[in-house]
Amino acid sequence: MYVASIYLFMALFPTPLATIHDRDHPHIMKQRMRGVSLATLVSLAATSIVLWQSSDVRHIVSQLGLDPRAAVPSVIVALVLMCVLFLGPLVTSHLEGGCGWDVLKRAPSSLWNQPVYLRNYVVGPVTEELVFRSCVVALWSASNLSTTMCVFVSPVIFGVAHVHRAASLYVKGDALGQILLSTLVQLVYTTLFGWIAAGLFVRTKSVMGPIVAHVFCNLQGLPDFAKARQYPSYKYFIWLAFVVGLVGFLVLFEPMTRPGVFVPE
Questions:
Q1: Catalytic site residue from 162, 164, 214, 254
Q2: What are the DSSP calls for 168-230, one per residue?
Q3: Secondary structure class of 82 (helix, strand, coil)
Q4: 3-state SS, residue 18
Q5: Is 265 a catalytic site residue?
Q6: Using an 8 Å Cβ cutoff, are 259 and 265 in contact?
Q7: Is 164 a catalytic residue?
């Protein structure tokens, strides 16, 4: 329903200035954002109705990861872990004289006048995490599926939901090999992030951490390992930062998300 809503709104409110595949056209972006926002609200309502059969309101709020008491710890844990994981890209960004956060500084005062910012850093992360984490994981957990299934299998749905972009690349005339490679990279990257987001959601019991992690990843983009070659004097330091970041993330994830440490029990 989430992906279908993107194309439904564009079909209902077309524009002669762009096609359904012009995902970066301002009108198309706004229609897509309206569609996914409505789909998210419907998904939350439908999930709440299903959970209502065996839970009370307070428990449903908790299952959806919307308990305000868990929000701040979840955000702090997510930010620390993302900074560690992206240590390599942050180092290269610093060497280039800036970092991903500069994007926010350059963002216009009115996000609606620049829908790309609104899509990438607000609507996209919020709606996707509410649907693919709050709704999907909550329903899977209520169905007595194991935590392993929720964390490692549900993100595959999140990854597959991004494959539809291949159609836009095909319409634009991109080579088939390039489309397949781009789609595969997108699928792998979104699934890997889905594992992180689902893990944060299950361990911190809040959707706020995954949302913040999602915004962080959108700001940073795909890690560019080739940038180490651009700084020969620092290449070993940069590679070390990538390795330390990955290892540090894997080592810190469990203790930082352990109930009673940073996350409330």
A1: 162
A2: HHHHTT--HHHHHHHHHHHHHHHHHHHHHHHHHHHHHS-SHHHHHHHHHHHHH-S--GGGGGG
A3: helix
A4: strand
A5: no
A6: yes
A7: no
**What is the per-residue pLDDT for 257?**
94
Q: Which of 128, 129, 164, 254 is catalytic?
A: 128
Burial 213-250 (b: 16+ CB within 10 A, else e): bbbbbbbbeebeeebbeeeeebeeebeebbeebbebbe
- Res 1: pLDDT: 62
Confidence at residue 260, expressed as pLDDT on a 0 to 100 scale: 80
State both tokens at 189: 């990257």
pLDDT at site 111: 58
Which pLDDT does position 113 carry in this prediction?
67
pTM of the model: 0.88
Q: Can you give the pLDDT at residue 201?
A: 96
Cβ atoms of 125 and 218 within 8 Å: the answer is: yes
Residue type for position 195: W
Phi-psi domain of 224 (left: phi exceeds 0; alpha: psi -120 through 50; beta: other)? beta
Residue 244's contacts (CB-CB under 8 Å, 6 or more residues apart) are 87
106: exposed, middle or buried (Cβ count in 10 Å: 0-12, 13-18, 19+): exposed
Q: Distance between CA atoms of 38 and 247, rounded to whole angstroms?
A: 39
Which residues in the chain come in under a pLDDT of 70?
Answer: 1-21, 98-113, 164, 166-168, 170-171
Tokens of 83: 């900074």
Taking alpha carbons only, the member of 147, 148, 141, 151 closest to residue 210 is 151
How far apart are alpha carbons 20 and 55 in whole angstroms? 41
Radius of gyration of the chain (CA): 19
